[in-house]
Amino acid sequence: MGHTGTDADVIVAGAGPTGLMLACELRLAGADVVVVERLAERTGESRAGGIHSRTLEVLDQRGILDRFLAEGEPQPVGHFSGLYLEFDESESRHPYPLMILQSAVERLLEEWALELGVRIRRSAAVSGIHQDAETVTVALETGGEGGARLRARYLVGCDGGRSTVRKLAGIGFPGTEATMTALIGDVELPDLPEDYVWVRRTPGGDYSAIAFEPGWYRVITSEYDRVADRDEPATFEQLRESLIRVAGTDFGMRAPRWVSRFNDAARQAAEYRRGRVLLAGDAAHIHFPAGGQGLNMGVQDAVNLGWKLASVVAGRAPEELLDSYHAERHPVGERVLHNTRAQAALARPGAATDALREVFGSLMVFDDVNRVLRHMLTALDVRYPVGGDHPMEGRRVFDADLKTDGGVTGVYPLLHAGRPVLLDLRGGGEVAAAAEGWTDRVDLVEARSEDASWPVPPVGEVPAPAALLIRPDGHVAWAADSVGAERAAALRTALTTWFGPARRG
Predict the structure, then answer these.
(1) Which pLDDT score is estimated for 4?
(2) Which neighbouring-strand residues pair with 58?
(3) Which residue of 37, 84, 145, 421 shows the fewest CB atoms closer than 10 Å?
């Protein structure tokens, strides 16, 4: 049971990657959470196909990355609208995208959720919401007579682009309409003459055929100025006919495992929070799936929100902390919608776009251009508006090597518990003295940096700080090159802002 008189502290609607990651983050921080999912079981549909650097780092921060590396395959290159991008091994311990199907991501996250004690209730579709001053009541259709009702302190809609939670909460979803239709399916292609096809452009559109498993290909066709009815089911025959129109042949396509459709509609929730209802993942933003950013953005939404929501539920921090979720994540979503619109425009067929792609591709050989686009897709350069002018503040922390009394460790193992970490890299007692009223909520760690400088995309190399306050999501709330009275005061302000007031006595 959650808070007095409720069934849970938080109800999470949707058991996709975002919902499961959020549930795990909430449980790590001590919240009681129940996930409700309309489907009776996981679909097994492959869907999204990769995890970018920042999401790999997030999984590493929680100590579960090895589970994903064991099932995925690192890819040394990425792309921006089919134009190749290079990655920089100095920027992250995990510089390359990991090719792994969404079905595997969901299975691994569900296993972790169950280990942490998350309750998952399937065949339970949200059908109504009622908020009052202290709780939110969720009506569920469960297949039985009369359905069911659950009460919690908060509800988070992680229920996809057509989010019922978003609609019931009355949150607007403005954006741009679709201008094209893409079909995607996992099939056998016995007559494909190549190992794979990567964004082959033709007058009618483009197609790709990528081998995810031996003998099986993910086929994607894109046809422009053809917009399918949203509610019309995608079929194998439609995929076959589309491939014939675009490629001139179906390459003997057979044995479909899964077929779906997507387009370039781009929409974003006007508010990520309305009262006791919040949104994350596709419920908060949809876009053309160029560059594989959607799943990654959803998981990062969850990691931004989880610790904040758990802190508020537990009374460790004031409710105003939740406002920072929209303030930090809405601009990130806005930027992804912007770059996916650009990628969709670069993908259109025709001589004018061909020329534009050629010019754009010639610019991408320059390191600065490649770096900007790489950071955009990987989210390594995201900076939250936390205040302060130290180059690390607001940015994700690098997994630097540290020397402690117990031996050498990285920064990320210190975050496995999902708690904030105050890292003192110079000693002397000033940091500990400033943080005295927060040691019940913040882990103080004394160490030495093994490296004189740390990489901070897009700034470059930055001298290792004297001390830094790391939020549970791995972003730096405060940093200092020396800890005098002014920086100590700034530290106390940051501790209060993010983790509540100092304890008394």
Answers:
(1) 60
(2) none
(3) 145
- Please report which confidence band the pLDDT of residue 3 belongs to, taking 50, 70 and 90 as the band edges: low
CA distance 355 to 376: 23
How many Å apart are CA 119 and CA 115, to the nearest integer? 10
- Cβ atoms of 418 and 307 within 8 Å: the answer is yes
The tokens describing 382, both together, are 């995201």
Give the closest residue to 422 by CA, choosing from 391, 401, 397, 453: 397
How many Cβ atoms from other residues are within 10 Å of residue 116's Cβ? 14
pLDDT band at 289 (very low <50, low <70, confident <90, very high): confident
Question: Could you tell me which CATH number the domain at 8-64+98-174+267-341 has?
Answer: 3.50.50.60
Indicate the class that CATH gives domain 401-499. Answer: alpha beta
**What pLDDT score does 46 carry?**
59
Helix (H) or strand (E) holding 79: strand 77-80
**Cβ count within 10 A of residue 309:** 28
Write down the domain spans for the chain. Answer: 8-64+98-174+267-341, 180-263, 401-499
C-alpha span between 324 and 321 (Å, rounded)? 6
> What's 415's DSSP letter?
G
Least confident stretch, 109-113, 210-214, 245-249, 323-327: 210-214
In DSSP notation, 87-123 reads: --TTS-SS-SPEE--HHHHHHHHHHHHHHHT-EEE-S
- Going by C-alpha positions, the residue among 55, 38, 65, 81 that lies closest to residue 358 is 81
352 Cβ partners below 8 Å, 6+ apart? none
CATH 1.10.3730.10 assigned to 180-263: no
3-state secondary structure of 437: helix
Query: 339-365: per-residue pLDDT in tens?
Result: 999 999 999 999 999 999 999 999 999
| pTM (2 d.p.) | 0.95
Pinpoint the alpha helices (H) of 385-453: 430-434
CB 266 within 8 A of CB 287: yes
Q: How far is CA 169 from CA 140, 283, 357, in A?
A: 15, 12, 42
DSSP of 135-182: -EEEEEE-SSTT-EEEEEEEEEE---TT-HHHHHHT----EE---EEE
Give helix 367-378 / helix 323-347 axis angle, nearest 10°. Answer: 130
Please tell me the predicted confidence (pLDDT) of residue 41.
86
